[in-house]
Amino acid sequence: MAKVSSDGFGEQSISKLLVKQAVPASIGLLVMSLNILVDTVFVGQWIGSIAIAAINIVLPVSFFIAALGMSIGIGGASIISRALGASNYEKALKTFGNQITLTLLIVVSMVVLGLLFVDDIILSFGGKGAIFEPAKIYYKIVLYGVPFLAFSMLGNNVMRAEGKPKFAMYAMMLPSVGNLVLDYIFINVMGYGMEGAAWATSVSYLFSFVFIVWFFSSKNSELKISVAHFGLNRYVVKEIGSLGFVTLARQAVVSVTYLFMNNILFDLGGETSVTAYAIVGRMLMFALFPVFGITQGFLPIAGFNYGAKNYERVRESINIAIKYAAILATLIFILLMVFPETITRIFTTDPDVIAQTPNAMRWVFAATPIIALQLIGAAYFQAIGKATPALLLTLSRQGFFFIPLILILPKFYGELGVWMSFPISDVLSTLVTAYFLNREIRRDLILKTTK
Predict the structure, then answer these.
(1) For position 1, what pLDDT does the model report?
(2) CA-CA-CA-CA torsion for 410, 349, 179, 37, nearest 10 degrees?
(3) What dihedral angle (degrees, nearest 10) is formed by the CA atoms of 157, 160, 164, 165?
(4) What is the pTM for the complete model shown?
(5) Dmax over Cα atoms in the chain, in whole Å?
């Protein structure tokens, strides 16, 4: 087999590689985040503020199902990166084939279950009062497009493992641009309301899926799998599952967080508070795109060099990734502290929402400058195939700290207690991650480098 383009992971300077990997990832995330952001603006301006809350109810459910594909994609990509680093091309091919089979079986099953229990799911995630009906309309249509999104997320991560970040970027941009165009046509021109917003989202996922299929069928991909690679292998499935479970567990906790947040905020402040959280949630997805881009760019570099036993380069990649991400996170923090009200007015003209959201936004992003260490630290363990610490560190922020805090603090501080939970959980999870990452570097990377 000819040399794959991922060989550059072991040769080029880490700074150059990280920029090469992170910039396309960041652009892709930016366009995807802008899509979510502008979609929310369109829905808020053309349908109403209740529609924003309705979409916020549906997102954790549809994203959890799609995250099944993403978790299989990230878990398999970690294996593929290390297999390519060790020149084990057959394992890389078998892993990719198994990823496709697993995604098809699991995601389709979950979509069927999701459609069977529509009302119960929407009510459980806080779709109460005036929010219920528009949420139900949006949910049922979007769920049809979720399998396409799941396969797109799978393919996106495998592209990065191959060393093809630009194609991964295109795969993220296509549905985003398509969704915005279709939003304008279906909502503003044709007046389809919530149904229009939902169909625009589902059809845009199909665009990305078609591009993913084209890429892996073309000469641009080195992973040319055959029918034999689709047959499930117990050992490969176990490794994909153990690493992919980290991502899935994180998304499951995110979905549970939405469930608690929407219900707690509805009880404390009604539809206005749920809408405020929806806006802040969109900013969490949008504002941190460059930090998440660096994290995504870091994964294949660390995985490849660890597989190639190039431990000094692994240490260098950790240090540079944290430094770059921290600088960007600090700039984002300054921007959001200065202009929260201006940002809120982009989404809505509702005076109650405008009055409440800026204060919430400042609390939620208060600890942003330090999150780089937590994100890169948790991602490192996933990149090198250490599933248990990766899982624990990934869950530390929301699972171990944030959810308990939002159940406790509102009893003493009301709605303010909800917003205070964000920076407190950020600080605690970062301290925990710093301890374990430092210990791992000393015990594993430094020790192996000096041997």
Answers:
(1) 35
(2) -50
(3) 90
(4) 0.69
(5) 68
